[in-house]
Design brief:
single chain; 439 residues; alpha+beta; five-stranded mixed beta sheet; 12 strands; 51% helix; 18% strand; binds adenosine-5'-diphosphate
């Protein structure tokens, strides 16, 4: 089956041949061929003019049918018309998808905001107006940092580390908003803003509740412990049948005391208003103090505890809190390492962080437990933790303290071989003159 353009070539060949033969009859074949080709050219120009006219009508009337065209031209007109109809259909489909996306995003209670690569607002849904007070079209192409005027937001926006959301109060009212950003395309950003006022209130109530209950429990537990201690301190005055139950009561009240102490510590750490005493801490001194206290408390286990630290290291932080974090790790190392085991407290400045590492050659932790260790009351083995007097709150406290120092914790452990807890502080916390080679 011949294509239209192939037929057209045959037609031209036929035209040249016939005009050449006709020309032969008059002895002027070249002239006849030239005249025939000129006529063909004229015909082509007429078709091109019709095409041009139709195309200019199409811009205002996209459904205007193509002109009737002879042969090859007819199929060109039809082809263009089909292409144009297909494009029109695709545009309509795209428009209806866009309309649906706009309508559904308008129904969302979450604000969705598109920000271009210069940090200017490009598009937002209805909730963007209610939560952030954005106005269309006045705020379009305005810098987002001018509209959410908050130094914390500016820092978060420009730092481009969006793994954690940012919580701020709304610029329109006192509601609490959670900002989450994601980068896509060529440094364009999608910002999602949620109203978390209710969740925030509940969280505050939870913190208050835990803080108050722990506080209220402290006095009764102290009284019970006091009486038990007094009774057990004078065993002759008690019926011997009561010795064992009383000892167990004392053990449990000690545990309760520890839980209440740890819960109070956690609730104090969660209260943002807590005033902190930032000083330049002598890290070697801190680690040595932790070492001595661990040796003293776990004296009977005769651990070999070493401190490896440059005596010049000075870390900016709250000494009380950091003592609490590092000692928690060291006491755990002592609890979960058998007698005469080795525990090391190391401090080292790496290229990206300043690390304090507490490692031991104790019982270790199976890998499936590691991601959950810093959850409150999470224990690898509840019976073992009770034996060691653990509350399951120690590592939650450590994590809170580290977060307050912009630090994180990394746990490595091999069951039966030992564990290492690495606290990574940003280098900016290390007082400059103390970084080796930087003074
Ligand atoms: P606990 O008060 O029970 O020790 P933590 O929050 O301090 O609670 O620790 C959580 C769990 O992690 C512990 O119950 C223990 O099983 C495990 N763990 C913590 N430190 C170590 C360690 N150095 N070696 C082995 N297991 C550990």
């Amino acid at each position: 089956m011949l294509q239209d353009w192939q037929k057209e070539i045959y037609r031209i060949i036929l035209l040249v041949a016939l005009s050449g033969i006709a020309g032969l009859l008059f002895g002027r074949s070249t002239l006849f061929v030239i005249l025939a080709l000129t006529a063909y050219l004229g015909f082509t120009l007429v078709q091109l003019r019709r095409l041009d006219k139709w195309l200019s009508i199409l811009t205002t009337d996209p459904d205007r049918a193509p002109p009737e065209g002879p042969g090859f031209w007819g199929s060109i007109f039809d082809g263009i018309f089909r292409l144009q109809q297909r494009q029109k259909h695709a545009t309509l489909t795209l428009q209806s998808i866009l309309d649906k996306a706009q309508a559904s995003s308008a129904a969302l209670e979450i604000a969705v905001i598109l920000i271009d690569r210069r940090g200017n607002l490009e598009w937002w849904n209805k909730a963007g107006e209610t939560l952030l007070g954005l106005r269309y079209p006045a705020d379009r192409n305005q810098a987002v940092t001018n509209l959410v005027r908050n130094p914390q937001f500016s820092e978060y926006f420009h730092k481009e580390q969006y793994s954690e959301p940012l919580t701020l109060s709304s610029p329109v009212n006192n509601n609490m908003l959670e900002f989450q950003l994601a980068t896509f395309g060529e440094r364009e950003r999608l910002m999602v803003v949620r109203d978390i006022t209710q969740i925030h209130k509940l969280e505050l109530m939870r913190e208050d509740f835990v803080g108050n209950v722990s506080h209220e429990l402290r006095t009764p537990i102290t009284v019970i412990s006091g009486y038990l201690e007094a009774m057990l301190g004078n065993p002759g005055s008690i019926d011997p049948r009561w010795h064992k139950p009383l000892q167990q009561m004392q053990q449990q009240s000690n545990r309760m005391e520890n839980i209440v102490r740890d819960l109070l510590m956690l609730s104090r750490l969660e209260t943002k208003a807590v005033t902190r005493q930032l000083t330049d801490i002598d890290v070697n001194g801190l680690l040595s103090e932790v070492r001595n206290d661990t040796m003293h408390i776990f004296e009977e286990k005769q651990h070999n505890i070493a401190v490896e630290c440059n005596p010049d290291f000075r870390l900016r932080g709250d000494r009380g809190e950091l003592y609490s974090a590092i000692s928690n790790l060291a006491f755990n190392a002592a609890k979960y390492t058998s007698s005469k085991g080795k525990i090391t407290l190391t401090a080292e400045a790496t290229e990206n962080s300043f690390d304090i590492i507490v490692s031991d050659d104790g019982i270790g932790i199976e890998s499936q437990h590691i991601p959950r260790l810093t959850e409150r009351f999470y224990r690898v083995d509840a019976s073992r933790a009770t034996d060691t007097g653990g509350t399951g709150l120690g590592l939650a406290i450590v994590k809170h303290i580290l977060v307050r120092h912009n630090a994180s914790i990394e746990v490595n452990s091999v069951p039966g071989k030992g564990s290492s807890f690495r606290c990574r502080f940003p280098l900016s916390r290390l007082v400059k003159e103390t970084i080796p080679g930087k003074n």
